[in-house]
From TrEMBL:
Residues 1-55, 259-296 are annotated as: Disordered. Keywords: Bacterial flagellum biogenesis, Cell projection, Cilium, Flagellum. Residues 1-13, 26-36 have a biased composition (Polar residues). The keyword Ribonucleoprotein does not apply. This is Basal-body rod modification protein FlgD. It comes from Campylobacter helveticus. Belongs to the FlgD family. Required for flagellar hook formation. May act as a scaffolding protein. One of its GO terms (biological process) is bacterial-type flagellum organization.
Length: 296
């Protein structure tokens, strides 16, 4: 017979038919050691839960002080300094209890407020789906002359046949690089990737630092459109450990890292204002020519 371990009893069933019991068995549920039952161990022991006299509160402290004063020796009355000390202890105890109660109430209110704010932020995050989100740190960083940066852009609308133009600006908002792409054909709306070799139009290294990137073009109606690097449609929202993330450009970005959310609709096109009907001028009644009164 194989030896089997019984985790509930914490001792082994021997193959010889006798059960060898270890000296002590710790039971974490009862928090005491299993020993042979005696008259003392058979008596249930219960903690002082629910016993109002288990702790000395301020009322009991005051009663003890009054009883002590009533039963004091007339020939040797209580020292006034001792009485003052006990009274001060009573006041300090009451103040501490009141402070603890106030702190507990404040903690409970803060927990409720935090939960309410989390729910409100979650609902607000869902309302961002379909809008355009701009990452707060939407500048590119150039760190070396051999670096070629792939720029993932998003075109909210299709271009006309003039193509699109990439523009790169330095920290002083000075244009350092331009490049024309897809000239002579239309570019569809959506994600579009271009590369910048980190140089100006003369082929000289632009220098380490941060740069702002945008694509400028005309849509099919001839209107000028500017697409900024770091601005993408919010395609969905995911929640991880109570934190809302926006799904954009194939990544999940926390909402606290978004600098702006605009109403430019996902799928292209801006919201056109409602066209008001043309107001027709009021028609004035025709003036009849004055007729001369015949002379009498």
């Amino acid at each position: 017979m194989q030896t089997s371990w019984n985790p509930n009893l914490n001792w082994q069933n021997g193959s010889g038919g006798t059960r060898q019991k270890p000296e002590e068995n710790w039971n974490p549920n009862l928090n005491w050691q299993n020993k042979p039952q005696t008259e003392d161990t058979q008596k249930p022991t219960t903690p002082n839960q629910g016993n109002p006299g288990a702790e000395l509160d301020k009322d009991a402290f005051l009663k003890l002080l009054l009883i002590e004063m009533q039963h004091q020796d007339p020939t040797d009355p209580m020292d006034s300094d001792k009485m003052l000390t006990q009274t001060s202890q009573l006041a300090a105890l009451e103040m501490q209890q009141n402070t603890n109660n106030v702190m507990q109430q404040m903690v409970a209110q803060m927990e409720k407020l935090s939960a309410a704010m989390g729910t409100s932020q979650s609902i607000g995050a869902l309302g961002a789906i379909g809008k355009m989100g701009t990452i707060a740190d939407n500048k590119i960083k150039l760190t070396g002359p051999d670096e070629i940066i792939a720029l993932k852009m998003y075109l909210p609308e299709a271009s006309n046949k003039d193509g699109i133009t990439l523009e790169v600006y330095d920290k002083d908002n000075k244009l350092v690089y331009t490049e024309k792409a897809s000239e002579g054909k239309e570019v569809s709306a959506g994600h579009f990737t271009m590369e910048w070799p980190g140089r100006n139009n003369d082929g000289v290294y632009a220098g380490d630092g941060e740069y702002t990137v945008k694509i400028v073009y005309n849509n099919q109606q001839g209107e000028k459109i500017t697409a900024n690097y770091g601005t993408y449609p919010i395609e969905g929202v995911v929640f991880k450990k109570g934190i809302a993330y926006a799904k954009m450009a194939g990544q999940e970005v926390p909402f606290d890292q978004l600098g702006e959310i605009t109403d430019y609709k996902f799928g292209g096109g801006t919201e056109k204002p409602e066209e008001k009907p043309e107001e027709k001028p009021e028609e004035k009644p025709e003036e009849k020519p004055e007729t001369e009164n015949p002379k009498a």
